[in-house]
Amino acid sequence: MSLLNKRDKFATNLGVLAATLGSAVGLGNIWKFPYFTGQYGGAAFIIIYLICVVLAGVPVMVSEFIVGRRANSNPVGAFKKLAPGTAWYAIGYSGIAASFLIMLFYTSVAGWVYSYIFRALSGTFINASPEMTIGVFGKLITSNYEPIIWQIIVLIVVSSIIIAGVQKGIERMTKTLMPLLFVLLLLCDIRALTLPGAQMGVEFLFKPDFTKITREVIIIALGLAFFKLSVGMGTMVTYGSYFDKNQNLPGTAVKVALSDILVSMMAGLAIFPAVFAFGFEPDAGPGLLFITIPMVFSKMPLGNILLTIFFLLTAIAATTAMMSLLEVPVAYLVEEKGYSRTKATLTSAATIAILGSTASLSANAGSLLGSIKIFGKTFFDLYDYISSNILMPVGGLFTVIFIVWVLGKANLAAELSNDGQLNNKGVINLFYLIVKYMTPLLIIIIFLNSIGVLKF
Ligand code: PHE
Questions:
Q1: Is the pLDDT reported for residue 2 higher than 70?
Q2: Distance CA 353, CA 347 (A)
Q3: Is the CB of 228 within 6 Å of ligand 1?
Q4: How far is 108 from 283, CA to CA, in rounded Å?
Q5: Distance from Cα 28 to the centre of ligand 1, integer Å
Q6: CA dihedral 30, 32, 33, 36 (to 10 degrees)
Q7: How far is the CA of 327 from the centre of ligand 1 (A)?
Q8: Which one of 115, 336, 392, 434 is most buried, by most CB atoms within 10 A?
Q9: What is the Å distance from ligand 1's center to 25 Cα?
Q10: 181-236 pLDDT, tens digit each
Q11: Domains of the chain, first to last
Q12: Is residue 324's pLDDT more than 80?
């Protein structure tokens, strides 16, 4: 019993929200959502994405909260406790594997972001020509040591927050950083939207174009909902285990999903109006973040300050997301293997640093590691592909199957209503209907598509 009492927890409702939103909001909002939206039909894509969030993202999040809070344990321990003597705990191991894989490339990109804060601050991009801006990024990713050093710095920052604990580390940091992120993003929005010619960017982002909604786009929207809400890999089981018994689980998930969408839209509104106002072409992924944005912002009055702010807020978003990624193996090592929190964090971080250098060094196509292709993908892309397109959908699928068929409706109702304290029968019935039928169907479609069995 004393072990249970010793478990660290989030202390306040605001802390729960800040930490969970901190996990959801990340690089996904800043380089995936805006680009996909602009590219795949604006408001038309947003509508499909919202449907995916409602039918897959939020239900899986609530399911993970249920598993975590009910078992009061890390993902492996949670399934062992709730279904002793079965193999359901494999979901937990799959989550740990996914969190490592995501961390390998995520820390690499976060390292570039950190380095760009200092580059912007020191005036690298003031009056820089497009060639120079392209050169800066090229030089960074072709260096054999600089990206690795930044990646290690990122891991040191995230580790020191994780070592401080759930309440004193994660909760305290996210409570301060999430509002700051919001204010900084708002500043960027105001600047971008008041530029002459901003209108075209707003149109690029929102103008509904239903002709672009193909079956493939629906799959992309589904995949994005998974990655965006950090579901299907144990993060929300782990965070859910730090919630107290009065926390409204469906309410929290809905608030997080809505705020996450708001941040995604705000990111799009900070980026595209400025891109179009200065006559640039929107680019995807790393190019948009590390080349187009510095080019665009350096052309604005006070652009250098804004650029620094932009990379600072991106770093905040990435850092709070990484805290939740690292917490998954740490909680496992502490509870299942008896490690101290410090030892668990340092072991995980060191593993990520060593393996993560393969992601950092393969980002440059001309390098030795960059030229190695497995299934036609570099290490960097492979880590992204296996985690987002295989482990997360499968993890999410088995989690909803678990809560419907193993936990059962009565237990779900007890968790969702906090043992009858909340009067939410309608929510419970709707949730049950969705997780029993709709979520599994959607996830199976994503999965079959990603392994190429179904080709849309
Ligand atoms: N949701 C984060 C983002 O959008 C990524 C993430 C995935 C974080 C899985 C934790 C777990 O960037």
A1: no
A2: 10
A3: yes
A4: 20
A5: 7
A6: 140
A7: 13
A8: 392
A9: 7
A10: 999 999 999 988 998 889 999 998 888 999 988 767 777 788 889 999 999 999 99
A11: 4-450 (1.20.1740.10)
A12: yes
Rounded CA-CA distance 154/112 in Å is 10
The pLDDT assigned to 455 comes to: 66
Tokens read off for 358: 């393969």
- Rounded to the nearest angstrom, the distance between the alpha carbon of 126 and the centre of ligand 1 is 32
Sign of torsion, CA 62 63 66 72? negative
Q: Write down how long the chain is.
A: 456
Q: Is 321 in the pocket of ligand 1 (CB under 6 A)?
A: yes
Q: Pull the structure tokens for residue 165.
A: 């604990």
- Cα–Cα distance list, 22 to 29, 78, 117, 283, 323 (Å): 12, 23, 20, 26, 9
User: Could you tell me if the CB of 396 is within 6 A of ligand 1?
Assistant: no
Q: List, for residues 378-427, the tens digit of each pLDDT value.
A: 888 889 888 877 889 899 999 999 999 999 999 999 999 999 999 999 99
Calpha distance 243→70 (Å, rounded): 10
Residue 325 in contact with ligand 1 by CB distance below 6 A: yes
Amino acid 102 reads I
**Which candidate, 31, 64, 19, 37, places its Cα nearest to that of 384?**
31
